[in-house]
Amino acid sequence: MTTLPRSTPEAQGVSSSGIAAFLAHCQSAGLELHSVMLLRHGRVIAESWWHPYTPAKPHMLFSLSKSFTATAVGLAVGEGRLSLDDKVISFFPESTPETISENLAAMRVHDLLTMSTGHAVEPMSGLRSETNNWVKSFLAAAVPHAPGTHFLYNSLATYMLSAILHKLTGERLLSYLTPRLFVPLGIESPTWEQCPLGMDVGGWGLSVRTEDIAKFGQLYLSDGLWNGVRLLPEGWVRNATRKHISNGDDPASDWAQGYGFQFWRCQHGAYRGDGAFGQYCVVFPEQNAVLAITSGVKNMQEVLNQVWKHILPAFGARRELHRPTGAGHVFSSAYSFPANDQGLKSLRLESTESQLTLTLDDHTLSGGFGMWLLGETSFRQWHGKPHETSGAAAWSEDRTTLTLRLCSVETPFIAEVLCTFEGESVTFQYSLNASFGPTEFAPLVGARAQVASKATSRESAPPQSE
To answer: Half-sphere exposure (CA, 13 Å, Cβ side) for 140?
Structure first.
């Protein structure tokens, strides 16, 4: 078995006392950990197993399996076998119901990945006792919501991804991943539970060792590169681990920070795959670290709370640029500008409690409320290409001004956007911290555009102070 290189915590800039405090507090809180492995800079700096669990024994991953299934989809997309916009029913014409609803017809591979299939109830209920054909059962379930609009954790959606890959490749998911992922990472003898028809279940059922989990996390941390060789398609990691759909608005819950392609967004800029009873693969991009845990716990959030409390500070204090502070606010509106020297014609604002999306003509700028949010924009391109951004936004207390600070994280440039609302108009101001040209641009006053729908909710009304 290929093993990861080892180092000491301090040699990699991590406080061993913080790691010890994490282990001690988990024990005192009654959290039954089975194994822990912490990596920084690609090196194992801490590892522990609780007897009779051992490094050589595989462990059931439960829903952490989903992240591996999504990875297989990424590989298949990279090979040109399918597209994320492919319709789910297109793969199973023999299993579709007699009447295909509009929402079922619209469901895409992308919707399976983001748990936004449109179901109101997970179609897993009673599945094993009802039928051996899980694909047919999934397609027969009611889809009351438009796909892509409603988050519902849905293990059978992940099974459908496995079934699609099985259909396309003619082999088990496990077999497909072996030469492409498991062998390159040195993951030996993985096993995967199968459905009654012989397909790997995808949403659960994978068993590997703790170090294998850590390797998987390191692959994602390294943007899909392993020992300098690209295993995952370029851009897949970033797309798979960013927030695609909202799954709640509790700032203290790591199950409400947004969902990607079978990955959960976490607090503190991290993301993870996880499984029932405390199987974790936590990736810390800002700290260049990975944490793999197997366990048998009831309170999965408490394990993560201990990670944020003890492990995160062990990496050292994180210095942060000035970030606008202020709560989010649900708001949606569009404005048009008169002819101007900047060539801007329109402004569209979509604000939720957690995220701002600001669209200038066809260019999108995004920011998080209370956090930096990764994104990409083609506005004021550098070298003619879209650039990666990290943005933070804030509403004023009276909700008459909206601030967005947008860092182009691979350049020196930081943009400040200020929107001031008055009646049916907005004053838009834009500035840069540095530039070979001007850094301040003349304010633009835009008139509120006609709203197409007749919605009367607060979301379509101008901000009002309360």
So the answer is: 14
